[in-house]
Design brief:
about 100 residues; about 0% helix; single chain; Thrombin, subunit H; 7-stranded antiparallel beta sheet; mainly beta; globular
């Protein structure tokens, strides 16, 4: 039995900032590959977003505890081996004591 059979590929752009001269610097592109386990949302459960609204999510992704913070609406792709089986966006991320949950 494989504990983490899936891979979540996430890409997003970090927020830009202004330097000391007042010029805007574009944020850097970030790509992250996370090993974990994806479970389909077969019951139509909802996830509450940071603004208080609720939406139906497609997948719940479980992974080891992560230090990185993945932003809302980051591009995401679920893979099993080299085969992609879902593409979409990150809905929410929660760091738990023993791991990380990501709603897709």
């Amino acid at each position: 039995m494989v504990r983490y059979p899936h891979t979540l590929e996430v890409s997003y752009r970090e927020e830009g900032s202004f330097n000391e001269a007042g010029d805007y610097t574009v944020g850097t592109a970030v790509s992250v590959s996370i090993e974990g386990r994806a479970e389909a949302n077969g019951k139509g459960n909802l996830v509450r977003l940071e603004d208080g609204s609720q939406i139906v999510y497609d997948w719940m992704f479980y992974a080891e505890h992560m230090d990185d913070r993945i932003p809302y609406n980051a591009d995401a792709e679920l893979k099993e081996g080299d085969t992609s089986f879902w593409t979409g966006n990150v809905k929410r991320m929660a760091k738990r004591q023993r791991g990380t949950q990501i709603w897709l």
